Amino acid sequence: MSRDALRRQIGQLLIAGFNGHQLPVELRALAREFGLGGVILFARNIAEPEQVAELCHDAARLTPQLPLWVSVDQEGGRVARLTAPFTEWPAMATLGRSGDVGLAERFARALASELKAIGITLDFAPVLDVHTNPKNPVIGDRALGEKAAEVARLGAAIIRTLQAQGIAACGKHFPGHGDTQADSHHELPLVEHPPERLREVELVPFRAAIEAGVATIMTAHVLVPALDETRPATLSKRLVTGLLREELKYDGVILSDDLEMKAVANEYAVPSAAVLAVEAGCDGVLICSGDHDTQAAALESLVHAIEDERLRLTRVEDALARLQRAKERFLAAPIAARPPHGRALRAILGRDEHRAIADEMARFL
After folding, report:
1. At the top level of CATH, which class does the domain 3-362 belong to?
2. Do strands 284-287 and 14-16 pair parallel, antiparallel, or not at all (unpaired)?
3. I want to staple 345 with a disulfide (CB 3.0 to 4.6 A). Which of 17, 159, 168, 340 is the partner?
């Protein structure tokens, strides 16, 4: 691959956050120079459904040679970027308490229909962490349950249903964030279990997700000393390549959690972390704040690391190939000339059938 070709493609490894209700000129410039793998939406990007549909439509077409992922964290409960008139879903712990796979499937089918209506193609859900620590400040009721087998059963049902409806799912946060006492948004959590315990508990839902064909898996910014004493999971080749790719035989797309979270950023500059994450085995990185200078610097660092042979070109080519296969699987349909709007759009969002499912879930709050 020539240097020019590398620069034009390296942005495929980035899912970028941005500010505002429209695509910023700086993000468009980034996509022109480097390409771009996708965008992630937050509450700061969302005004009302028609605006979001227009934004998603514009984002998907930002690089004509390969569509972008248009992604969001729409879990339900505390982590939901899309609020009314979208259906407001209870926390996933409700599904765990119900134990009802059918209800989980109906939830996922309804969620997918609303995401598809506005042009979201990748949802960073479900959470596959096993909530074994009641003092955990960041997972809590985001988890499907306290028992690995139940999280695996319900998580796999959500993944299968979302993806059958054309929404790529993401199992998170590998290798498990459920038994921690720190929030990785602010500091580096510690997972102090031996490998045997991880295989018996934390990894069980991820195995089920892999069997269900999950499109993407997101790494956690946690330190697991039994497997790597120095680097958090996102930056650890032992965890990303050794455990997830080789031991668990996962052949899909591995994405980092946001590299600007302090669990990583307190110790590693974002551009350096991007290189280490890809070297470890991640196929893409999230840089979410909307600081486009930082995003550009991360892409430049990846190019320079390849040129300096600190990062193998074959590792990047492998990542690009995995990303392309996933996009061919989920983004093959032509993008409509215009996004949906008006009554046709509003008829799908928050419809009575979906609210009835949310009400049924809420019985288990």
Report:
1. alpha beta
2. parallel
3. 340
